[in-house]
Every structure is written in structure tokens, then in C-alpha cells.
Amino acid sequence: MSPKRIFRLAYHAAQNSASRFRIHQLRDGDAFAELSPILFARGYEFGGLLLNLPPGNKHALRHIDVSHLTASDLLVLNTRPPVHDEKMGVNRPVLTSHNTLEAEIFHALDPYYFEICARSQMLLSESMADKLLSGFKDRANILFRMNRDGSYLKHRGRRDRYWQKLPDEKKLTAAYLIQIPQLWEDGPGLLAAFGMAGTETLAWNYLLRTRFQDWIGCYQFLMAEIVPGQLPADPTSLSFADQWEVTPILTVPLLASSADTSSTSPILN
């Protein structure tokens, strides 16, 4: 039997293609460190880094050798996948790697979970939006602040015409947990846990480790609404997030036998 391994999918921290892509300048490593003890306790070992560095020529889809990945492996992504950052023209994008592995992951997320997945906007697919809890249907389409933090700018339901805007003093943000048993036939699974900005992503993974460990392995898709509270001026730990209010507003149970939890495409086959 193949060992159970986790591989960290690491995006580069650069925000424009003119940057020099130093290999060590990666996003959300501490978020991975917060989440990984849960997986180690469940029998996984660390398989290594999978670098998603931006390409020299983004117009050519680069082939990535995934022959070493097995159905026992799990790819862990602690950065919001930039499925539509380029299309939406966000001013602080996560730079895509334009390779076949990333394309496989995007294929699994769009359009089944998201119609838009970008720093500026998260629009749930129609099937996911229909699963939002009563009272939260107007969270299907959310615009986010991009300069100060990852809080809501305004939001509305999928079929709504008018946006709802929160008062400036009220802060809300969203965080996501996605668990796909197999990305392709006999291939690895995917675990993605991310918020809408760096601090929110770090705190979200901390909370998954400290308060919500049972959610790992339970949900195919979970969207939580968070009231983050005021950040301390000089924090020495992430304990400030212990006071954050976290409300699951969309939960889809993980059913490993369901065809809806796996994705197949010809990209890597």
C-alpha cells in the first residue's frame, strides 16, 4: 500500500510579473504549518513542496509530471486559488502558474463550486448557492475590499438585482474549506483552506486546527462567515482569533463514493 503523503501547493508571493521569482518567497507557509498537524495525526507524512511559480511565458500551458502522485496522496492548498484573478483584473492578484496541475485544480473548482473565484469577488455556482442556509442566501455573490483587508464590500443573492452594503463599522469576511477525494482517476485528493487575504487565511487555518478539527474530512465544501474583530496592535500569537465569531453558512457533506466529489479531465490523462 502506498504511503499517505501530503504535498504543499505553494504559490509565489509576487503580485506582478515583473518581479524576480525567488523560490523561497512563497505564500501562506504558516497557514500550512497550522493545518498540517491535523493531517500528520491522521497518518499522513510530508511528501514535499509542489511549486506553483509564475511562468516565463504565460501563454503556453506547461506540462507538469504528476506520475509520482497516487490516490493515497493529498495536495494541500492554503492560498485562495486564483481561478479568475487575471480575468477579473484584480490589483493584487495571486499569480497563476499556467501549468497542467494547476489547470486540473481549476477544472475541479470551476464551475462546480464557483462561477467566479477572485480576490475581488466570489460568486458561488448556482448549485452551491442553492445550498446556502436560510438567512444567508444573499451571500452567494460577494465583493471584497482589496486594500485594507478581506472584508465584504457588498453582497447579494444570485438572482438579486441590487447589492447590499454593510456599514463601515461592521466587518464580515468569508472563509472556505474544500475537500475533493480525487482530482483525476487514481490521482491525489485536494484539501483547500483559505480566506480572502493573508491574515484571514492564516487565522482560518489556525481555527481549523484549534476549534474545528472535525470539519477536516467531513465536508466536500464548507463556507463560513466570520466576524473577525479588531486585530491587536502587537500580537505575539494567533490567540486573538479565538474570539472570532465563525458561522458555517453552507455545508456539503463529503461522500467519497459520490461522483460529484471527483473530477476527471483530459489535461493530465
Verbal overview:
With 269 residues, the chain is of the alpha+beta class. Helices cover 16% and strands 26% of the residues. The chain has five helices and twelve strands. The strands form two sheets. A seven-stranded mixed β-sheet has the order 2-1-3-10-9-11-12, with helices on both faces. A five-stranded antiparallel β-sheet has the order 4-5-6-7-8. Strand 4 (114-117) and strand 5 (121-124) form a beta hairpin. Helix 1 (29-41) runs parallel beside helix 5. It is globular, with a radius of gyration of 18 Å. The model is unreliable at 256-269 (pLDDT under 50).
Topology, pairings included?
Blueprint: E1 5-11, H1 29-41, E2 45-52, E3 74-77, H2 85-88, H3 100-109, E4 114-117, E5 121-124, H4 126-129, E6 141-144, E7 152-156, E8 164-165, E9 173-180, E10 189-194, H5 198-210, E11 219-227, E12 245-253
Parallel strand pairs: 1-2, 1-3, 3-10
Antiparallel strand pairs: 4-5, 5-6, 6-7, 7-8, 9-10, 9-11, 11-12
Helix pairs in contact: 1-5
